[in-house]
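Our preliminary data section would be incomplete without showing what the modeling component actually yields. Below, a chain of 118 amino acids is followed by its predicted structure, encoded as tokens that our downstream tools consume directly.
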Amino acid sequence: MPGILIVDDHAGFRTQARMLLEASGYVVVGEAADAASAVAAVEELDPDVVLLDVQLPDHDGFWVTEQLPNGNRPRIVMISTREAADYGSRLAGKPFLSFIHKPELSRSRLEEALGTAA
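Predicted structure:
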């Protein structure tokens, strides 16, 4: 299973996501609460996947994706409490795999986003 970095400014969501992911067999390698910490954590922890909230206190998740190096970029799955339609064209052509509405986060939805669904 890939190592996952959870990036979200709400500690409660990070805890819930960690519990769900670990119960599903994923390894959570770390957590970050803002964009700057997310970039530093990717560099330090070298996760396979980043579960990245769009709305962060210092910059948004789109900014984070622009800061990561192209060569060894982790697979990125954007998440938000808002629906994908709320972001319109901002989701098109970006360097991430998929978007998951937070209430829909599950093992099967993440596997679908990562292309590992059975």
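The longest strand covers residues 27-32. The chain has four helices and five strands. Preliminary results of this kind motivate Aim 1 of the renewal.
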